[in-house]
Design a protein that fits this description.
The protein is an alpha+beta fold. It is about 30% helix and about 25% strand.
Length: about 1300
């Protein structure tokens, strides 16, 4: 090969200023794997493996010899091959600051602004902000927010992160103007505007103090100019530096894959099991990385990155005439929604073209623009049109194996050519398209069409041109008749089978005509001033700066400075999380003889295992062995909740996809996972039950049906003036904790002892079930939890059978430590979700809106085993009243048994489902009567002393206080009038507003779980080691427990340390769940500390002028124990299902919210304009942590009710297995104005220091967005004469919003009859 004899084969790069050389790099290894496993820098995290969450973000720096400048850019280390950073400098979160030296200002501001909860996402977010500052030391708030388009956080709700980093921006000042809270007397309330107290100061940012770029990389070009080749275990990597070298390598390896950002190939190899023996990096060939402008257009090299194109276009547009740049404008507008910054920094334009994704964001633009491609091989070059003939089938094209794509030429538009591009996705930022389009038309002086090109993605296996439509339009006048005809022609040109891949058929087809309608009006607007209502159809998305206010009580006058309770204390681990020093399970150092386990999972939803063939798998190098049910020394039967109805390893039958059949144990993760894919399993398959409706039709239930009856429902429904029947379906929700399930199982070598390090909310159940599996007493097993990178209920039970138990069995079999951290797709496939719910109800009510009777059936999709489903159903039933007094109630619960993974606990634990059903029929009643939603809610709202439908008396009822305050603070009634006026003038954009209260019961409904323990050791140096039964997963539990201990002992919080949660210090703990952990563990900590304090009292009295250390040492020398345990059980709890009596809850947390939204009736997009929340949290232990929980719960609820959709195929295959397909809210989904107030003067005598639980209660308040959307849809429907009650299922996705806005475009594509086709995915 030309030049290969001069090639280098030693990888050289720098990490945090240190030179790294490697003579044998593995081309298949990612940069993340390398820095974590070989360099032991564990600050960067693996969150998804596909570049969708940003937890792995690092900064790459390189010297550009053409511009003579150092370039910094953020990348996803989970995708970047380590070979790709040859000659570059890598900066990780450890390289910019440390708690041991000094925090970088970025790290300081996110930690002190309370922007880190679980902390797993924090290093990646820090590095995104750091990279922005290295490039732009004084960015705008717009630039700052766009820097995080490739980052996700599941805990915080994003607001505190944005507010903390807003202090770096040029616009940093109060956004409230004259109404700034700082201009008003605070009295007894503390007010934070944009998350910051008025006295908050930070270390200033000085860009001159940043680390220096390695001089070796700047002074020599040898790393840039030499062809590189690396050979690994099964893959070779070439990096040519001339086009001749590139063509030579390609000719000798015609099936080789060209790679630039590895954003497609990385996903294919990781998740699709594809293997490419030869990879060619095309990033250093000048002809492929240049952008050249001529008088007719622009030529872009195929390896040019998307952000390089964006920046070049941005500058060039200033030099060209407006009409020449219309395609450039469309491309740049599209790029701002294309993936995240980390992807755009490395992904190349050629990859988009050659990959040929049918939903590519750019290909429809290139095709509609009339682009030309230059292809080249050793035989020569040729130019081909990028038109309907380029793609021959799904992801196939006309390029020969020996050819490469060199460049694309995009012509300028002429003065009478008009060009626009469109994209619709589930989420605005960093989401794949459902449908996208590029549209171009050339008109003559009489407004007749000379040429038109309409290209679409998402409407066929390839990007397609609507040729018939475009040909018919030639010669036609650009008028309303053409618009009408084009809509019909598009229907014929773009057919979609009702069973087509991707589903959403009617929505996708409607989008094609809706897009053209927008295009029609945008072109028309060049010549004609549009009517005001038409203008709303082409209103651009406007970026708006976020603003916020947080209000909470100050601590009482006279409270000692040393007493931290009630103060806004930062999360105790925030700084460590911001620097990457906080240790999570997979960050722990590897044992010298450690093994890795990879699970072998079932691929059918229901079947009998006929055979398992491991021969090929065991031949892979590094394989130690295979584990299955025959290797379990104790019992293979298990069950993390009440029933033992599962198996660790499936022995005969599989009842869903993703069940564990066996496991491969190997020396490395790569070997184990590669071998696991080679295990061959044969099944006898049976028809699965996937959906609730299928379960109902086939009478498939778990035998746990429950009923609550209060009053005479039948008589009330017969006698009442009005009745209404309805139904609603609430979808499932993936927990999407950023840290997937992880475990290290360590056999101790004697007496069958086992030590388990796990990312679990439930160390005791992990311990007990591991002991059962091993056949040893529980005293021989210890489970330890340092911290979790999020949990939300998903690690309460499912972490145990999904990972911990298989690992424990493997460790026992081989007598060596075994580690595993599930990949994101494995975690999503195996661990279950929030329970989907279907409800049917009948309501009786008066003409005024008073509710007299409720008869409701709740159906939960439990999945293939019981897990916690019965308890989830109980809480859903208990919350079916929401905040409303209903004289006659009958609630029935049904647990559907299906063939999907067992569904489980999730923040709210059935409460949000029950509450949502109730708020839905309240909304229906108001719509039926034509009266105010707020009036119906107020009329039926609980008062002090009322009894619920399960006969618990409501004490200290603050529903009305929260309700009135939020309506007043939000100016609800005036805004409702303004919205009605706006909607009268706006046809295609609508606004809506909604107010919803909440009442959430606090306690485990299983009474025995309402207990907790704590252990306190005081050492002779005065330091305190505190242990309790709760696990830290970002909710600030350890921080609060330190505050409680500090107040009780009367010592500073700095003296108190919590190391971990472990079963050998506090036994028999309940799971950290049910929002009760601060209540339970806080009281146990208080008791233990009080015991110590009481023991010290004689020494305090003897020497009142002494110090804490004096008293501790005096006690020690007097042989007084300085160790104490505490125990607490919640009193007066217990509910009798037979008599419908008792108290299932200790108390209630109350709250209320108002949200305003705007929807695009043509696409289904929406944005949240403003949210106000008032929560009753008693006397908050830590107001900033509690506000963080409110905002995080709201964001999670927002995802549940508007965005997140798990999709199963009819045969039980999960189609949404990562952030690419499953979308949680992002930074851009934060309400534009987001205000949170904690209700004052509402102490709660039933919890520690008068506080209240906070984790779950606020989640339902996000339903205000759902009902505000429904309000906006109601206005859109009214414009077309459609009125009355209508069904809107949750989530209110873009599809559901668009199709509910009934108009001429939706009516063109009616829904097919159910059962007449096989859908791509089902509503399970």
């Amino acid at each position: 090969m030309a030049g290969l004899e001069q090639s280098g084969n030693t990888l050289v790069f720098f990490v945090n200023g240190k030179k790294i050389t490697d003579d044998n790099p593995e081309p298949e290894e990612t940069l993340l794997s390398y820095i974590r496993n070989k360099l032991k820098l564990t600050g960067s995290k693996l969150g998804c493996g596909e570049g969708g969450c940003g937890a792995c973000t690092v900064m790459i720096s390189r010297y550009d010899r053409q511009s003579k400048q150092i370039q910094h850019f953020s990348v996803n280390a989970c995708l970047a091959p380590v070979c790709s950073v040859h000659g570059m400098a890598v900066t990780t979160v450890e390289g910019i600051g440390s708690t041991k030296t000094r925090l970088h200002p970025v790290q300081e501001r996110i930690s002190r602004s309370h922007g880190s909860q679980c902390g797993f996402c924090t290093p990646g977010i820090v590095m995104s902000m750091y990279t922005l500052l290295r490039n732009t030391p004084l960015p705008s708030t717009n630039q700052m927010q766009h820097a995080f388009e490739g980052n996700l956080c599941r805990c915080t709700g994003y607001r505190p992160i944005l507010d903390g980093f807003k202090t770096f921006t040029k616009e940093f000042k109060c956004q409230m103007g004259e109404n700034c809270c700082r201009n008003k007397p605070a009295e007894d309330m503390q007010i934070q505007e944009n998350g910051l107290d008025k006295d908050t100061t930070f270390t200033s940012y000085d860009p001159t103090q940043e680390p220096i770029f390695p001089s070796e990389l700047q002074l020599t070009d040898k790393y840039d100019k030499m062809m590189m080749s690396f050979r690994g275990e099964r893959t070779s990597w070439f990096r040519p530096v001339t086009i001749a070298q590139l063509l030579d390598v390609k000719a000798n390896n015609p099936n080789a894959k060209l790679v630039c950002g590895n954003t497609e190939i990385g996903v294919e190899t990781k998740f699709k099991g594809l293997h490419y023996p030869v990879l060619i990096s095309a990033t250093h060939v000048p002809e492929l990385t240049c952008i050249e402008y001529s008088h007719t257009g622009v030529t872009i090299g195929a390896s040019t990155t998307l952000n390089a194109i964006h920046d070049s276009f941005q500058e060039k547009r200033k030099q060209l005439k407006e009409y020449e740049t219309r395609v450039m404008v469309a491309i740049n507008e599209m790029l701002q929604w294309f993936a995240g910054q980390q992807i755009r920094n490395v992904a190349a334009i050629g990859g988009n073209i050659m990959t040929g994704s049918p939903i590519s964001d750019l290909n429809p633009i290139f095709m509609a623009a009339g682009s030309t491609l230059t292809l080249q091989s050793l035989e020569g070059s040729r130019k081909v049109a990028f038109d309907e003939n380029f793609y021959t089938a799904y992801r196939k094209n006309i390029v020969r194996p020996d050819e490469i794509l060199v460049s694309i030429f995009i012509p300028y538009t002429s003065e009478k050519e008009y060009f626009y591009a469109y994209k619709q996705a589930n989420r605005k930022e960093d989401d794949i398209a459902i449908v996208n389009a590029g549209m171009k038309v050339r008109l003559d002086d009489e407004q007749k069409v000379q040429k038109m090109s309409l290209a679409f993605g998402g409407m066929a296996p390839t990007t397609v041109l609507a040729l018939g439509c475009c040909n018919k339009a030639i010669g036609r006048t650009w008028d309303d008749k053409l618009l009408e005809d084009v809509c019909h022609w598009l229907e014929n040109d773009l057919p979609l089978s009702d069973s087509a891949p991707g589903g959403q058929i009617q929505y996708r087809r409607t989008l094609t005509t809706s897009f053209f309608f927008k295009f029609f009006l945008q072109v028309k607007s060049y010549k004609v001033k549009l009517h005001g209502k038409d203008l709303t159809a082409i209103k651009d998305y406007e970026w708006e700066e976020r603003k916020s206010v947080q209000i909470f009580e100050k601590v009482p006058e006279g409270q000692q400075e040393i007493d931290p309770v009630g103060r806004p204390v930062p999360h105790v681990s925030a700084a460590k999380q911001a620097t990457g020093e906080a240790i999570y399970c997979d960050d722990m150092p590897h044992y010298s003889d450690e093994l890795y386990i990879a699970l072998v999972l079932s691929t059918v939803a229901h079947g009998k295992i006929l055979s398992v063939d491991t021969k090929m798998a065991l031949e892979i190098p590094g394989i130690v062995g295979y584990v299955d049910h025959t290797d379990v020394p104790g019992s293979n039967d298990t069950g993390p909740a009440a029933l033992i109805d599962e198996e660790i390893y499936r022995s005969e039958m599989v009842t869903c996809q993703g069940q564990i059949i066996g496991a491969i144990v190997a020396d490395t993760q790569a070997h184990a996972q590669r071998a696991a894919k080679l295990v061959k399993i044969q099944y006898e398959t049976y028809d699965p039950i996937i959906t609730i409706k299928e379960a109902i039709a086939k009478d498939s239930y778990f035998p746990t049906d429950s009923v609550i009856v209060n009053g005479d429902v039948e008589s009330a429904l017969k006698e009442v003036e009005n009745t209404l029947e309805g139904e609603i379906h609430l979808g499932s929700q993936e927990h999407f904790y950023l840290e997937t399930n992880a475990v290290i199982a360590v056999p101790k070598g004697e007496d069958g002892e086992m030590e388990i390090f796990a990312s679990t909310q439930n160390p005791t159940t992990t311990q007990m079930l591991a002991a059962r599996a091993l056949g040893v007493p529980a005293s021989h097993v210890v489970c330890r939890v340092k911290r979790m990178g999020g949990g939300f209920g998903g690690k309460e039970t499912r972490s145990i059978p999904a990972l911990s138990l298989p690992a424990v069995v493997a460790a026992q079999k081989f007598g060596r430590p075994v580690r595993c951290m599930l990949d994101r797709d494995e975690d999503m496939l195996t661990t279950g979700t929030r329970h989907p719910l279907y409800a049917k109800y009948k309501i009786g009510f008066t003409a005024q809106g008073r509710i007299e009777a409720l008869d409701v059936d709740l159906y939960l999709n439990a999945g293939c085993s019981t897990d916690l489903s019965a308890a989830v159903m109980e809480r859903a039933m208990f919350h079916s009243d929401s905040c409303y007094k209903i004289p006659n109630v009958r609630v029935k619960g049904h647990l559907c048994k299906t063939n999907i993974p067992s569904n489980t606990a999730f923040r709210g634990f059935g409460g949000p489902q029950g509450l949502m059903v109730c708020e839905n029929w309240i909304s229906d009643v108001a719509s039926k009567l034509g009266i105010s939603q707020t009036k119906v809610r107020e009329m039926n709202m609980y008062k002090e002393g009322d009894k619920t439908h399960y006969n618990q008396t409501i004490e200290r009822c603050n529903i009305e206080s929260c309700w009135k305050q939020v309506l007043e603070q939000s100016n609800y009634h005036k805004r409702l009038e303004q919205i009605d006026e706006y909607n009268r003038e706006s046809r295609w954009r609508k606004r809506g507003i909604a107010a919803v209260p909440t009442k959430f019961g606090i306690a485990f409904t299983a009474t025995f779980l309402n207990q907790a323990g704590a252990l306190v050791h005081v050492y002779t140096d005065g330091s305190v080691l505190l242990t309790h039964g709760g696990c830290e997963m970002g909710q600030g539990l350890h921080t609060k427990m330190i505050q409680v201990a500090s107040k009780t002992l009367g010592v500073s919080a700095e003296r108190i340390h919590i190391s971990e949660t472990s079963t050998n210090t506090v036994p028999n703990t309940s799971a950290t769940a049910a929002s009760a952990s601060s209540d339970l563990n806080g009281m146990a900590v208080l008791q233990a500390c009080q015991t110590i304090k009481d023991r010290l009292q004689p020494f305090v009295k003897a020497k009142p002028e002494g110090t804490w250390n004096d008293w501790v040492n005096a006690a020690y020398f007097d042989r007084v124990s300085l160790s104490a345990s505490g125990f607490y059980k919640t009193p007066n709890l217990g509910y009798d299902w037979e008599t419908n009596s008792g108290n299932p809850f200790n108390y209630f947390s109350f709250g209320a919210a108002v949200s305003e939204v705007e929807i695009d009736c043509l696409t289904g997009d929406h944005k949240v304009l403003k949210t106000d929340i008032v929560m009753d949290l008693g006397s908050s232990l830590n107001p900033v942590i509690d506000i963080g929980q409110i905002e995080g719960a709201f964001a999670q609820g927002y995802g549940l009710f508007t965005l997140e959709q798990h999709k199963y195929s009819p045969n039980g295959t999960l189609l949404t297995r990562g952030p690419g397909a499953y979308k949680i809210p992002g930074f851009g989904d934060v309400p534009i104005e987001f205000n949170v107030t904690l209700l004052k003067d509402s102490p709660n005598p039933k919890a520690v220091y008068s506080s209240k639980a906070i984790g779950e209660p606020p989640l339902i308040l996000a339903s205000t967005v759902f009902y505000a959307i429904k309000h906006a849809i109601t206005s859109a429907r009214a414009d077309t004469g459609v009125t009355g009650v209508f069904r809107l299922d949750s989530p209110a996705s873009s599809e559901r919003i668009r199709m509910a806005c009934s108009d001429e475009f939706t009516k063109q594509f009616p829904e097919p009859k159910e059962g007449s086709f096989t859908p791509w995915f089902v509503q399970h």
